Amino acid sequence: MREFPTHPAARLPSPPRKILHVDMDAFYASVEQRDDPSLRGKPVAVAWRGARSVVCAASYEARVFGVRSAMPAIRAERLCPQMIFVPPDFVRYKAVSRQIREIFARHTELIEPLSLDEAYLDVTVTKTGLPSATATAEAIRAAIREETQLTASAGVAPNKFLAKIASDWNKPDGLCVIRPHQVDAFLMPLPVGRLPGVGKVMEAKLAVLGITSVGELRGFALAELEQRFGRWGRRLHELARGIDEHAVQPERPTLQVSAEDTFEHDLRLDELEPHIRRLAEKAWAGHQREHARVARTVVLKLKTSDFHTLTRSLTPLQRPQSAKELADIACALRDRVERPADSRYRLVGVGLAGFVEQDSYHAQTDLFDIVPE
């Protein structure tokens, strides 16, 4: 477990929450290695083989070769010719995810899932009465190891964005704790690229201003950042000071299920299909957890290289019945993006929205299927 020195000048704007970010280690690949002993210790990519396939997850043995999730499978195979490709099995991954969620729920009701393999937990007050957030994180990780034979990394911090950075600090199977008085000591030396939302393009823009670290970012006044970056400038100003007032949001009636990725390098519209199809698989897996409700609307989200967000949506006569149908519709929605062909995009997302009760949906479709006598 790593801790950081105190900083006497560290201040937070309000009494701190106690937030955990728990992130399973190479989740899909680890489930495959757990269930098939012949895969243990070997480079594994959860993906279909083929030019259009994208890696859903890579084992740590594969990561040694530079293989990462969201990478085209064909490139992963070039980097690691001995790679073992395993087709994804989201039914199994969802079952394990439910086990992990049950472990979380023993400690708090304030759980905000981000995907099958990670979640925020507010443990300011817990059901168990453990003496600290650190003790709660250790108990959760121990239960996950014992009950699923998998490992999880966790970050403990006063807010969500710090907890998420911390959970990645000592991966795999690690724990990192940032106490309120340690926020400055943790943040100041970090490269600005570690801040959420600061990708390669924004990192380059900040570098032009002489900003490469969070400490250097703090040297810029709020007004100057807002003038240069608009509302995003205010967010940069807050993040550089460890400020994040977003509360953990427990599950509510779903408005949208989605999955999105920010690319290492900006891509053209015609290069997005494999990523759209991979994200459609993840969004569909999330949709399947909605047992009593179904979604009717497909949403495609894009963010341009200059940070403009575009969304296109379609509510077909018949809702999507599979991840493939979802992907096909999302790919078709690209035709409704009216921008120059050489435009580049830093993020793509695929979602399902327009949720209705399953019984209501079937009643409507049955009504339309009635043939007049």
* Strand ordering within the main sheet: 5-6-1-7-8
Q: How many H/I helices?
A: 14
Task: Supply the CATH architecture of the largest domain.
Answer: 2-Layer Sandwich
Tell me the count of domains: 3
What would you give as the CATH superfamily of the largest domain?
Answer: Reverse transcriptase/Diguanylate cyclase domain
Which secondary-structure class do the elements indicate?
A: alpha+beta
- The third-level CATH topology of the largest domain is Alpha-Beta Plaits
Query: What share of residues is helical?
Result: 25-40%
What is the highest CATH level, the class of the largest domain? Answer: Alpha Beta
Number of strands: 12
Mean pLDDT: 87
| Low-confidence runs | 8-13, 360-373
Describe the sheet with the most strands. Answer: 5 strands, mixed
Please give the radius of gyration in angstroms. 22 Å
Enzyme class: transferase
GO molecular function, one term: DNA-directed DNA polymerase activity
Subunit structure: Monomer.
Cofactor: Mg(2+)
Model description:
The structure is a single chain. By secondary structure, this protein is of the alpha+beta class. The protein has 3 domains: 184 residues, Alpha-Beta Plaits; 53 residues, DNA polymerase, domain 1 (Orthogonal Bundle); 112 residues, Dna Ligase, domain 1. The chain contains 14 helices and 12 strands. The strands form 3 sheets. It has a 5-stranded mixed sheet. Helix 4 packs antiparallel against helix 5, helix 10 crosses helix 11 and helix 12 crosses helix 13. The chain is globular. The chain starts with 18 loop residues before the first strand and ends with a helix. Its EC number is 2.7.7.7. Pfam families: IMS, IMS_C, IMS_HHH_1. This is DNA polymerase IV. It catalyses: DNA(n) + a 2'-deoxyribonucleoside 5'-triphosphate = DNA(n+1) + diphosphate. It is found in: Cytoplasm.
